Structures are given as structure tokens and as C-alpha cells.
Sequence to fold (770 residues):
Amino acid sequence: MSFWCLLLVAGLCLAVLGGSGDRAVPEAVVDSQKQLVGRLAGTQRAVINSGIESLGVTAERLGAVSEKEPDRLLAAVVVTGGRWKGAAILNQQRAPVALRGEALPPDAAAKAVPGAAVPVAVGTALNVVVAAELPGGRVLAAVAGIDLRVLRLNTEAQQSVFIAGPAPAAATPPAAAATPPAGASAPPGAAPAVPVATVYSPQGAQIAPENEPLNRLIARAIEKADDRSAGVTGPLVTLTDPQTQQTRRLAPVVAAAPIGDSGLSVVSVTHAARVVDGERGRGFEPGLALVVVALLILAVLHFALIRPVSRVLAQAKAMACGETPEKVSLPVQREAARISAALAEIANGPRRPPRTLADQARRRRPGGVSALTIVALCAVAVLGWCGAVAGRYAGGADSVPAQVSVDARNDVEGAAVALRDGLTGGVTRLRQAATAAATAAAAKSPNPAASAAPSPSASAPVNGTRAGAATLDPEPFRAPLGELVDDGDVRSAYVVDGAGKPVLVVGEEPARQQAAPPTGNGVKLDRVTGAVPVVYAYLQVADGQTVIAEFGVRYLSGLLRRAEGRVRVVDGDLRTIFDTGGYVPFRVPTAKPVRDAATAALTNKAGTSIGTSQGSRMLLAGTLIGGDETLPDVKWAVVSERSLAAFRLPQNDLNRGTWLVAFLALVVAVLLFAWYRLVVIRPLRQMAEAAEKLADGDVRDTVCPVRHDEIGAIAVCLDIVRQTMAEGTTRLAGAARLKGIGREITMVLPIVRPKRADGPGARRASKRGR
Fold:
């Protein structure tokens, strides 16, 4: 059985370790492009969905007063630093009756659909119009821009990223200008015209409209990306490096991802080199080696284990039949030699049993190789093959394509942008809460002009203290801060006085140390000690009063999970602030490559590198967050690490296949050793001990056969010999059958039918008997 299992593993080597020998773009490049466009499209989709939801909530909350106070509703929508560039209230005829911020694009009022986002293009700029219903058949419409963040592109591969809209009905590439009119026949071999998608927010190399193969590939990728990202590759093309003027043969790679149901897609176009997808016939050599090992194991087991046992069985049969065998040579297998020697001594008469342990030690046992050693050597031969195959083919990739490195930087920068937007968004939401509190206080005050809670957006600078503002009543902040906490992004929101003492708390108890709050607005890390990092946004709303919102650690860590792999955030002293892989706060990373990547990011030398972390080869990428006007009090490094084994590269495929066949061969070796140890070696040793007892004259214990094989037959013979020694030769009946003597005639006895009894039941039984 083990021989056939090894042959099966050898055949698996041919299928797993061997490759097709074809050249193709590595799947890791296609995967990284799909992840890039998928995350970009997901970000845009999340922004649009969040805008639809927030605009609907605002319209529901202030819709009742919008007819008399439209500016109050529009002021709550268009906030300094917010997502909306402009908003308008439309009447039943879709005519604007109130405006704030930028004017709506042309035809935006007619295209606005409540509860949906409609893309509207103005030249090369792309906007999205979101609408919400108001009482009286009116509509609240707001406009926001759709744009891609600045990406790092692989200029050597002429990479380009853009948002693709539906192709105009009459848009055809210039090459199609010679298309014959209707009714005329097209030239032989002419391909149909390919519609060129409308491009927005382009970055990188330009896609020429006359490049029909590439445009067809883009259209195919967009069509394939129905509800998720998709990637396609094309035939080789010749590219010329604009700097070195060198030409290379590369294959285009196009990935696309839809932005919800807006009809827009994020598209990335790059070029990559083709690599050999495994050497053809590479698995033949290890497979042949395993076949040779299997044949050697089969030969060793036959000549060193099975054949000696068969010789001992023939000797035992002769003894059980009362024959005195001639002098036999002892087998080389130790247990078989012990049985053979004991049988020979029984034939010469029983010997005196040893009385003491010293006598047992002086007893000379036959030499030879034990069965356990033989089986162990066979298992070691298989293990040696496993080690040789693993040493030659295992190891995996030690580098990644250049495009994957560029996409890794874009990935970690995307996580950093999400974290930065989450932090600055906290300040924006505090501004909105302060505006809502000021509006509520003005509505309750009999003299709104003299209200003690003016809007900070109207009287406070962005990063400064509003001089001369009166101390306000914190109670109007309870409702807007409660909405802020209910969203789940903030664990605690509160208002503090000049000494930092909370005067109004919503949510959990403040974790920030009680100290004088900073002036102006921004984001800060409270301290570098404690069980959890306390990161908070603050906004000074009056002299001596500040609104503070403490971010939830899970929320900020969730923003980092937008990047693949493990992502860490460390401060200027390399203390860990956040870590998606579990961590102890404020502990310095133990892996030197992680510290080096963080140090490079903090010194504006961010890039990608390959190092060893946690015993695995990792691709590390870092970037800097903060240290600018948006986050002046924060300067952190964001570092991502991803195992090279996670990329779909030919080296990794070979590594996984190698470990698969090595593991299967290891299982066969273990099963081989365990099976022979339990089924052959143990019973054989028991037979050797039983035979030696009989040779010592001990006939008290019955020798019971435990298996129906050669070892079981030896047990039967030994028990017959024991009975002969105990009771004489009268117990030899039937022993001739062990030798296969055919003098005994086997008779076929007739069927003895029962006597017929009276009754219907008996008759039926008699009929059945016939």
C-alpha cells in the first residue's frame, strides 16, 4: 500500500511542480491593480452613500423650518471644510429659491433624484448631485466634486488612472472616420469601431483615442467589472521610455471597478513584463526520484522483512507437522532469527530456563538487523526525499514586480488618507455640532442677536481663539454631541472649561487627562502612556470653553484596515499608536525592518522595502501623516507589511506545490512506519518472545494468533508445538493442512432434512425445503 501511495505522490509531482512553460503576466500584478481600483471606487462609493444619508438626515431635521428659514437649512449643509461645495432649495418646478456656496451645474436641478446620486460633468470636472425631499414638494439639492486622490504611478510602465464615464453615442476614435456609410461594405478584415469612454480626473499617461486595441481592452474590463473589480491583459506591445529612449515589449494590464450604480468606473491601465509560468517537465525529476525511492523501499522490505518471515513460517510449519528440519541458516532479520533459533533449539530438546537476570543477560541472542531499524530506514529514505525536494524548490519569492511595489505605496497612502480624513473630519463635525448648538440656542433665546452661543464658523478663525466671546451655556451641545457619539466614531464628547474640567459629558467618561485645553482647533494625542491611546479633536467655541471629541480606537484602526496586510501607526519616537494586528500601546516595534521603514517615512524618505519580520519575508511600505497645516500637532508614520508569500507569483506557486507534495510524502512515511510498527513489528516480537519461552520449556501460556497472515500462521504453528511439548504427539491432528498436503479427502455432506410434521405450517416449510 505504501508503494502505491508513493507512486501517487510521484504522479502528483508531475502535475504540481511542473509548469506550462508559457509566458504570462504575474497574477500578483493583476491582483494589485484590481485592489487599487477597487479601493478607489469603494472610497468614492462610501462618500456618495454617506452624502445621501447625511443630506437626508439634515433635510428631515430642518425641513419643517426650511420654508421660513431656508438659510438655516443651507447653513447646516454647506459647512466650511465639509463635503458639499454648494446647495440649493428647489421648488416644485425645480427652480432654485435659495442658494448657498457654489451654484448648481447646468441641468443639475432637472437631473436631481431624491435619495440618489447623479453624476454631472462640467467640462473635464465631474460632480455628483444628491437630492432629498422637503415638505411641500420641494427638493434639497447639494453638489460635491468627485476626484481621485493623487496617486503614485509607475511611469516606466506608462500607468494611468482615471474615472471612466459612459461613452458618448457619437464618440468614435479618429481611426473610425473612414468607416463606410450605411449600405456600403466595410473593407475586408476591418474591425468595428470601439466607443471611447469619457475620461475624468486623469492621472499619468494619456490614452490616445486612436489606440483601438487598448480602448477595446478598457471597454472589456469595464464590461467585465459588473459589481466588483475585474482585470484583463492584452497582447505584447512595444513601449519606448521617454527618458532613456529604450524600447521594451510589455503586456497591457487594465483593471476597472464600478462606483456603485452611478455608471462610473475607476480604471487603471499599466504594462507589465511576462514571466515564465513554471518550467515544463520540472516535476519529472523529483517524481522519478520518488519512484526510485519507492522501488528501493519495496525491495528492502521484501528481502529484509517479508522473505525472512516466510522462511521462518516454513520452518514453523515443519515443526508443527512433527518433522525435524535440517540445519537452517538464521535470517538477517533479528526477530525472525530469534524465532528460527528457538525452533531449532526446540527440535534439539528444551533448554534449561534462566533462573536469574544475570543468566538472561548472558543468554546469547542471534544478531541481525531489527525490523524496527529496517522500517525506520525506509521512512528516513522518504523523509530524505522530502528534504531534498524542499531544499531545491521551496523558498518562495524574494522580490515582487515593480508595479506591485508602486501599488503597495498607494495602498498604505490610501490608509493614511483615510486616517487623516477621519481625524480632520472630527474637527469638521465638531464645527457642525457647534453650529447646531448655536442655532438651537438662538431659537430658544428671546433675543437671537444677543444670544450667548454664536456660531463658531461665523466668528471664530479656523486655527485661532475667538477673542471677546462670552462664556456660553453648554446645554445646547447635548443633542448634537449625542448624535456624534451615536455614530460610533467617537467614544466620548464633552465641553470643558478653561481649566479642562468637563462641564457637559455625552457618552463614556473622558479618558483625557484633566488639563487646560489647547486653543483653536485641531487633533492631538493626549499622552504616550496608558492602556489605550487617547486621540481627540478639539474646537474652541468661546473664551475658556472648548468642545472635545475622543476618537474610538476601533474606529481609527478600522480606517487602517483599508490597506492589505498589517498596518501600524508610530509616532516620532517609534512608539506604536495603532496596530491592526494587535499590540501593546506605545511599545516600539521589535522588527528592525519595520523601524527602518517608519524612520524613512518620518524623514520624508518613504518608499518600499523587503525585510524579515516575524520569521517571514515582508514587503514594507511607509508614508507620513500630519506635520502640515491640516494636522499640525500630529506627525506619525504609517507602515504596512505584507508577506511575500501572499502574492500570486510563480515562485510562490512552486513553493506551495513543493510543500504540498513534501507533506503528502511525509504523511506516507509516517503511516508506513506506524503501520509496520503496529501490524508487523509488535506481533513479530511477541512471536519471538513466545518462541524463546517454548525453547526454555515454558508451555503454560497459549500462543494466540492475532492476525490472519504469515505472523498469525506462525502463532498457530507455535501453539501446536507448545501442545506437542505439553501433551505429546496426539495433538498433531490437522497440522498437515499447514503444509498443504492434499492426501486428506474433503467430502461434501448431504443436506439433512427435518422430519415432516403435521399442519399447514409444516407443509409450507417442507415445500420450501424442496
Q: What stands out?
A: The chain is about 40% helix and 20% strand. The CA atoms of residues 471 and 528 lie 32 Å apart.
